[in-house]
Design a protein that fits this description.
Elements: H1 14-26, H2 41-48, H3 56-67, H4 69-75, H5 79-85, H6 90-99, H7 116-121, H8 130-139, H9 152-157, H10 162-170, E1 184-187, E2 192-194
Antiparallel strand pairs: 1-2
Helix pairs in contact: 1-3, 2-3, 3-4, 5-6, 6-8
């Protein structure tokens, strides 16, 4: 298609996936070739894919990662980091989370010191990431921090996405309003009492 009729960025174009498949079939070592700045195709694809629309970018990333797993290891990336970084849909993020061989990897920092939740919470304000952030929030340990010493709650509170920020304001509240700092006194089937 000509540029005027195309609405997607290059990494979201289905022909990109087919081109990568053809290139890797003909020249498998292409996944390891570095550009002038030392970046491999996997790194370039992650950088080029933003606001994933139809899953093509994630498919390209999986294909390149399979051919060059060392690129992921050297950057301390998991598929979860990459899915969050490209603002992949909830389905792809859920799949990447389920594929982790150790659930604790959801709380791992990459080479830049970022958690998967860091990338998801930094997504542009106009792209709805609330469900992705909620999923990654639950998967991330409450004791882990990113490179700026932000825990999972602070990552969501500092989000530019209004829905994520508003949700984070209610995390840890009772009935979505009050934060209870004291200890619980009495509790019955119909009532809870707290010491102030």
């Amino acid at each position: 298609p000509d540029k005027a009729s195309s609405t997607s960025d290059g990494a979201d174009d289905p022909t990109v996936l087919e081109t990568i498949r053809l290139l890797l079939t003909s020249f498998p070592d292409a996944a390891n070739v570095k550009d002038a700045k030392g970046r491999v195709p996997l790194e370039l694809m992650v950088a080029a894919t933003s606001r994933e629309k139809n899953g093509v970018g994630m498919k390209c990333i999986k294909l390149l990662a399979k051919e060059n797993p060392q690129a992921m290891v050297s950057r301390k990336w998991t598929m979860l980091h990459m899915a969050a970084k490209i603002s992949a849909p909830l389905k792809d993020v859920r799949e990447a989370l389920a594929a982790l061989n150790k659930p604790a990897l959801a709380s791992e920092q990459d080479k830049m010191g970022k958690l998967a939740l860091s990338y998801a919470s930094e997504a542009t304000p106009y792209y709805s990431q609330l469900s992705v952030c909620q999923l990654l929030f639950k998967a991330t340990s409450n004791t882990v921090m990113d490179d700026y010493f932000r825990d999972r709650t602070m990552l969501c509170l500092s989000s530019k996405n209004a829905a994520v920020h508003a949700w984070a304001m209610r995390v840890g509240t009772k009935y979505g309003r009050d934060k209870i700092e004291g200890s619980m006194g009495d509790k019955s089937l119909t009532c809870e009492g707290y010491f102030a």
